[in-house]
Amino acid sequence: MTVLLREAIGDRLRHARTNQRRTLRDISRAARVSLGYLSEVERGQKEASSELLASICEALELPLGDLLHKVAADVSALDTVEVTPVEEVEATSRESVPEREPAGSAGFEGGRLVSELVGDDLSDLRLQPAPRMNTTLRTTIGAPKLASTIAA
């Protein structure tokens, strides 16, 4: 999976700004960058020059080296993810579908959200096995309950 550097930088800048509960307007004024341009940088639509990036980092009180280190960790973590091309997935799905592994096997059926973030890099997130779910739907549809309202 290819990650654009400008998108990774933008994600980290937005993350730093929102963690500080600061607005785009606040940062744009402090960094002397137009609000629209800063927004485009955060969304990964514009690639900021090194001077502009240094100014934004200074406004966020975030050392440029820390930002670049975190971005490098994010990019390297995402580059190691293997993605199967769509053509291969479609060809495989037309063929026979393999049976699922029984419960308690070593494979993963899915994942679940972790209750807390360990560290602040995407590489710190770990996949944990999902609990087995009961797929039986148990629903009873009855008449609606009438509620009376008394006005005083």
Automatic annotation (TrEMBL):
It comes from the Bacteria. GO terms for molecular function: DNA binding. Gene3D superfamilies: lambda repressor-like DNA-binding domains. Pfam families: HTH_31. Residues 13-67 form the HTH cro/C1-type domain. Residues 87-110 are annotated as: Disordered. This is Transcriptional regulator with XRE-family HTH domain. It comes from Amycolatopsis jiangsuensis.
